Amino acid sequence: MSGEMPVEGGCSCRTVRYRLTATPIFVNCCHCSWCQRETGSAFVLNAMVETDRIVLLAGAPISIDTPSASGRGQKIVRCPQCHVALWSHYSGAGQGIAFLRVGTLDTPGQFPPDIHIYTSTRLPWVVLPEGVRAVPEYYDAKAIWPAASLERFRAARSRPGS
After folding, report:
1. Do the strands 44-50 and 17-20 form a parallel or antiparallel pair, or are they unpaired?
2. What does DSSP say about strands 62-66 and 85-90: parallel, antiparallel, or unpaired?
3. How many structural domains does the chain have?
4. Is 1 a domain residue?
5. Using CA atoms, how far apart are residues 86 and 104, in angstroms rounded to an integer?
6. Residue 54 pairs with which residues in a beta bridge?
7. Which of 19, 41, 75, 157 is least surrounded by CB atoms within 10 angstroms?
């Protein structure tokens, strides 16, 4: 992962501010129709990071239970004032892993996607750059992620409360 750490981010109204103290485990650009609906955009860029690597600097975000395509739901963490989505927790990853919305970082360009997922439902006018890693649905992390990313993910999921 590129980028200098730590990096800060937050919501649009600046009620919630946070500091990310570690580079992402892996960054997904998700083109699924659920993410399109939730964001009101063509895709979402999620940086997976250990939840304890997100340090709140200001505000108290709220967690909203939201349906997901898997049927298991997700908790979207939002600003209580402007309701911008800051990160999510999916049941499959647990509370120890946050899917941080890269666009909420002050410098979002430093964490480009490692992979484009669910490209089978990509909007037809979204053109992926030549040579980027892309899959029609999801993928097997064990086959794609670097060993260090897999270890960080395992460690975060095994922490108490995860």
Report:
1. unpaired
2. unpaired
3. 1
4. no
5. 6
6. 20
7. 41
* Three-state DSSP class for residue 96: coil
Q: pTM (2 decimals)?
A: 0.92
Q: How far apart are CA 104 and CA 113, in angstroms?
A: 15
d(CA 83, CA 69): 22
Residue 91 belongs to a domain: yes
CATH of the domain at 66: 3.90.1590.10
Per-residue pLDDT tens over the stretch 118-161: 999 999 999 999 999 999 999 999 999 999 999 999 999 887 66
- Cα separation, 94 vs 47, in Å, equals 15
Write out the residue range of the structural domain in which residue 53 sits: 7-158
Number of H helices, E strands in the chain: 3, 10
Residues 6+ positions from 100 with CB-CB distance below 8 Å: 9, 20, 24, 46, 47, 48, 49, 54, 86, 87
| pLDDT computed for residue 133 by the predictor | 96
SS3 (DSSP) at 56: strand
Query: How many CB atoms within 10 Å of residue 76?
Result: 21
Classify 5 in phi/psi space as left (phi over 0), alpha (psi -120 to 50) or beta: beta
pLDDT score of 3 more than 70: no
